[in-house]
Design a protein that fits this description.
The protein is of the alpha+beta class. The chain has eight helices and eleven strands. It is rod-shaped, with a radius of gyration of 47 Å.
């Protein structure tokens, strides 16, 4: 069953045009055919009027034809014996009356005009019907041919009109596809056909309701996460106090499991609060910050965790670059990316970090030796709470979603790719527009410090 409205319209209009075109062509052919026969009858009448005023001589009938290109024969009735020994050419019965009539057999018919002169003599003017029909058909076909040639052009015109009429719908579909699922703008009504306006109004009302639901969801998540921070912090303090008491082995194992759950819950709450904060672009005032310095400070905090697992974490390249972004958001972005790499890199693995300028853009790049991301999961890694097929560890599925929102709010972009075989790992690159950093003594010192730290820690 054809589901395309464009295709259905085209097929329906093509069928209707074919049907009406065939009917119209048939009527045009019949009309042109009849007109051609009437023209030939009129020619016979004119020739008959001339023949009635002039008696023919006695030369053979074969030599007496007039308008030979039209194969018209004129005979005196009755035909003189000395005029044509083989007999008359026109099959006119002796008792036939005057006027236009058709005589002859089924294989040799003639259209004959018989005229009686004032003196009682008679003359006949005739033409074979086969030749007349051939001329009529040719004339009719020449009349219909332009219409037949016009039909394909008409089909192309119909297709163009349908495409042009449905183009506003295609533009609206593209606008919907380009919209973020959590930032829904109403569809414009400018340039939309009147028949589509009620439908667009319904979609806009639906989008408005969805936007209200998404906003309510954001507020609920932020409020719930904020309210849960205090009890989770209290539980964490109590668990730490229990850690200093003497417990049996079974109690110590249960306490370790409790502390792990509390840490995971606390991390989830922090991620939820960060997600609620950075879902809306531009929530914080951007300022010019040193990307290399923020990255260095964040990585310094994570070095102990990497060292405990024997992971080689360090900068392969650390250039001095500046970007215009909220410093807190930038630190969260870098921390989430490095923490994500730490979670998925096996013990004894390697994480390489790069900070550099590429033309007018600043790039922060993370390369790890973990298992990477399943190709089927790559299109969905930025969805909140999506952990994919390889959901291991204590991840919440919010880290990359927060990174994507922070990058978008700063007019940046993020790219993720797996390392092709025979290697393994994941490469994540975040790109920002470079900003001009005022040259100060502190900045010059930062450049020197960056050069000194451009080595593995």
């Amino acid at each position: 069953m054809m589901r395309s409205l464009r295709g259905r319209l085209f097929v329906a209009l093509t069928f209707l045009l074919l049907l009406t075109g065939a009917g119209t062509g048939f009527l045009m052919f019949r009309w042109a055919y009849s007109e051609a026969l009437e023209v030939q009858d009129a020619m016979l009448l004119e020739v008959g009027a001339v023949a009635a005023k002039n008696r023919l001589d006695t030369e053979p009938t074969a030599q007496r034809g007039v308008l030979r290109e039209d194969r018209v024969v004129i005979e005196e009735l009755p035909v003189p014996a000395d005029a044509n020994p083989a007999g008359p050419v026109l099959p006119v019965p002796p008792d036939s009356g005057d006027g236009l009539q058709t005589f002859g057999s089924a294989t040799d018919q003639w259209r004959v005009l018989t005229v009686t002169r004032v003196d009682g003599s008679r003359v006949a003017v005739g033409q074979r019907t086969a030749y007349r029909d051939e001329i009529a058909r040719g004339s009719a076909l020449r009349t219909v041919l332009p219409f037949a040639l016009l039909f394909p052009c008409l089909m192309l015109l119909v297709a163009a009109v349908i495409g042009s009429s449905l183009r506003p719908v295609a533009r609206l579909a593209g606008r919907l596809d380009a919209s973020d699922y959590d930032h829904l703008a109403e569809l414009p009504l400018a340039g939309i056909p009147a028949e589509l306006r009620p439908f667009i109004d319904s979609i806009n009302r639906l989008l408005h309701r969805l936007a209200m639901m998404i906003e309510q969801q954001r507020r609920f998540v932020a409020a719930a996460a904020h309210e849960l921070r205090s009890p989770i912090t209290a539980l964490s303090v109590q668990a730490e106090n229990l850690d200093h008491t003497v417990l049996p082995r079974e109690g110590r194992e249960r306490l370790a499991a409790l502390q792990t759950g509390i840490r995971r819950t606390a991390h989830l709450l922090e991620q939820l609060l960060a997600l609620a904060r950075y879902e809306t672009a531009g929530v914080a005032k951007a300022q010019i910050v040193a990307l290399d310095r923020v990255a260095r400070n964040v990585v310094a905090d994570l070095l102990p965790a990497a060292s405990d697992r024997g992971i080689d974490l360090g900068f392969e390249r650390l250039d001095s670059v500046a970007v215009r972004v909220d410093p807190t958001a930038l630190a969260i972005l870098i921390r989430n990316l490095v923490d994500n790499a730490l979670r998925h890199t096996p013990d004894g693995g390697r994480i390489d970090l790069h900070v550099y300028a590429a033309g007018t853009h600043a790039v922060f790049r993370v390369e790890d030796t973990g298992p990477g991301i399943a190709e089927a999961d790559l299109p969905r890694v930025f969805e909140p709470f999506y952990r994919g097929q390889r959901s291991e560890g204590e991840g919440t599925g919010l880290g990359l979603s927060i990174v994507e929102r922070i990058a978008t709010a700063a007019s940046g972009s993020i790219a993720i790719e797996n390392v092709p075989p025979p290697g393994a790992g994941l490469h994540v690159a975040v790109t920002f527009a470079c900003a001009a950093f005022p040259e100060t003594a502190e900045r010059r010192a930062s450049k020197t410090e960056s050069a000194e730290h451009a080595m593995r820690w």
